[in-house]
Amino acid sequence: MLIEHDGQAPTVHPTAYVAPTATLSGDVRVGAGCRILFGAVLTAEGGAVELGAGCIVMENAVLRGTARDPLTLGRQVLVGPTSSLAGCTVEDEVFLATGSRVFNGARIGTRSEVRINGIVHLRTVLPADSTVPIGWVAVGDPARILPPNDHGEIWKTQQALDFPGYVFGLDRPAEGESLMPGVSERYGRALARHREDRVLET
């Protein structure tokens, strides 16, 4: 399904393949020879989603561009099934295995691998030829690659990256308070723009 969002329509190179159950919404640009498989969602939420030549996006992956951070894949990148990428830059020849999570403002260097259920956190810079092992977490600039049970070390770096402020424009709440009312109001208002969307092709 191709959807016009905020006055922007997806563009798909004639040599690319988009599965009939994939969804492309807004300023999504699919390069030559790309393959977008069943159930994948590529959505430009205020920022473009751009795929270089020869990229493969597997089943049920979600790629989201944001106003602050467009999403860019270089050439010959593979995004595995159920992976989720938001507002990040992925350089050429990167392998993102099943269930990978790459967050806003992150950059993944050429020929890197993020293995099954690996995480590249907010504003993290992963140098070329890096590997994030199965289920591990890359965090910071330069990236530290840590096991998921090392929460203390992950938090030492992650806290300063300020996820609520960077992604939602909100201060971290005081103890006993919740971030969610503010997130729900701001994010809900932004997502309400989809009410004006126009389906171009199914």
TrEMBL record:
InterPro entries named among the record's database cross-references: Transf_Hexapept/Carb_Anhydrase (IPR050484), Trimer_LpxA-like_sf (IPR011004)
PANTHER family found in the cross-reference section: DYNACTIN SUBUNIT P25, GAMMA CARBONIC ANHYDRASE-LIKE 1, MITOCHONDRIAL-RELATED
Name assigned to this protein: Gamma carbonic anhydrase family protein
The organism of origin for this protein: Streptomyces narbonensis
